[in-house]
């Protein structure tokens, strides 16, 4: 079977090889519609980039570093960030890039030991997946390499970021609980740990304010330390009738602890999560939650990093991706 060339693709689409080359290299001069069509046909025909020759010619590696803190790659089965990583790699592949993951441990982050892919100039740009300390991410930013934050943002840095709509998602979750008759509602998550948890807390708080419900500080319960290490959830003396959790994994752990303490879910206490990932469906009962669109977030992050690699002035600011409410079995309607 002969190798497919750009001329073969051009002949099939009745266009010039120059147009094919521009489309496959993500250069200007080709409409997005035609560019996507060319990429689809090239993939169907089995065309493969000569990445080595291309990188030598253009002075690029066509590698993107995907940096993640090891606290997000846990042994308890929560694979949300691994799923997002896989989605990012698929999006990078479609754009003609390879993704190289580097996991950063607590000591590396604390001592500002930068990822080896950056130190050794192995990548054209970096996507940081999940929040890391300001000192660490600012040190990466100071290297001047194209950089995108995925699933978090930092108010102190002007770095492009892609986030789910944590504020509105938590707001509609809390409103759903209130619509089911709940007025004693707690929140589980350390609001000082990540920007997304803070936004989810603020969405919860806004819902309470909008409905004339006072915030009870003893019902805002930490699930982790400020550096992201998970801790034992401590129940208040007086329990609310419902909890808003900052993610599905925490909701799953909370439900198990409630059961061990003699509470029934949702008969005694209702629980909602966030993400609509694996824990939402293996939980008993299945979780009412907000779905995060991982595919759209990954595609937009890759579009941003490729844009920044090709144009030093390319900016997207902070892009917020909407989620949707998924209603299951973990909420009871009360009088």
TrEMBL record:
<dbReference type="GO" id="GO:0000976">
    <property type="term" value="F:transcription cis-regulatory region binding"/>
</dbReference>
<dbReference type="InterPro" id="IPR000843">
    <property type="entry name" value="HTH_LacI"/>
</dbReference>
<dbReference type="InterPro" id="IPR028082">
    <property type="entry name" value="Peripla_BP_I"/>
</dbReference>
<keyword id="KW-0805">Transcription regulation</keyword>
<dbReference type="Pfam" id="PF13377">
    <property type="entry name" value="Peripla_BP_3"/>
</dbReference>
<keyword id="KW-0804">Transcription</keyword>
<protein>
    <submittedName>
        <fullName>Transcriptional regulator, LacI family</fullName>
    </submittedName>
</protein>
<dbReference type="InterPro" id="IPR046335">
    <property type="entry name" value="LacI/GalR-like_sensor"/>
</dbReference>
<dbReference type="Pfam" id="PF00356">
    <property type="entry name" value="LacI"/>
</dbReference>
<dbReference type="GO" id="GO:0003700">
    <property type="term" value="F:DNA-binding transcription factor activity"/>
</dbReference>
<keyword id="KW-0678">Repressor</keyword>
<dbReference type="InterPro" id="IPR010982">
    <property type="entry name" value="Lambda_DNA-bd_dom_sf"/>
</dbReference>
<keyword id="KW-0238">DNA-binding</keyword>
<feature type="domain" description="HTH lacI-type">
    <location>
        <begin position="4"/>
        <end position="58"/>
    </location>
</feature>
């Amino acid at each position: 079977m002969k190798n497919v060339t750009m001329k073969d693709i051009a002949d099939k689409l009745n266009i010039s090889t120059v147009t094919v080359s521009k489309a496959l290299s993500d250069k200007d001069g080709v409409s997005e519609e035609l560019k996507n069509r060319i990429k689809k046909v090239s993939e169907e025909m089995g065309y493969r980039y000569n990445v080595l020759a291309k990188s030598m010619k253009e002075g690029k590696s066509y590698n993107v570093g995907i940096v993640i803190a090891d606290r997000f790659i846990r042994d308890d089965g929560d694979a949300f960030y691994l799923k997002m990583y896989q989605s990012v790699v698929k999006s990078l592949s479609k754009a003609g890039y390879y993704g190289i993951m580097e996991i950063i441990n607590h000591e590396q982050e604390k001592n500002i030991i930068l990822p080896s892919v950056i130190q050794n100039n192995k990548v054209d740009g970096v996507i940081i997946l999940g929040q890391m300390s300001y000192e660490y991410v600012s040190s990466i930013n100071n290297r001047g390499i194209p950089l995108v934050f995925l699933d978090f943002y930092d108010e102190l840095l002007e770095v492009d970021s892609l986030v789910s709509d944590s504020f509105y998602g938590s707001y509609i979750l809390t409103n759903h609980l209130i619509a089911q008759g709940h007025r004693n509602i707690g929140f589980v998550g350390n609001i000082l740990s990540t920007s997304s948890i803070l936004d989810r807390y603020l969405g919860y708080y806004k819902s309470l304010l909008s409905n004339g419900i006072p915030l009870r500080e003893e019902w805002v319960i930490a699930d982790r330390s400020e550096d992201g290490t998970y801790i034992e959830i401590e129940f208040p003396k007086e329990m609310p009738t419902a909890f808003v959790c900052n993610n599905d994994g925490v909701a799953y752990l909370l439900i198990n602890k409630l059961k061990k303490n003699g509470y029934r879910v949702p008969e005694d206490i209702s629980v909602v999560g966030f993400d609509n990932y694996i824990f939402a469906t293996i939980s008993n009962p299945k979780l009412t939650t907000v779905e995060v669109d991982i595919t759209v977030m990954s595609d937009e992050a890759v579009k941003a990093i490729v844009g920044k690699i090709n144009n030093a002035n390319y900016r997207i600011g902070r892009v917020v991706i909407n989620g949707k409410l998924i209603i299951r079995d973990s909420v009871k309607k009360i009088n």
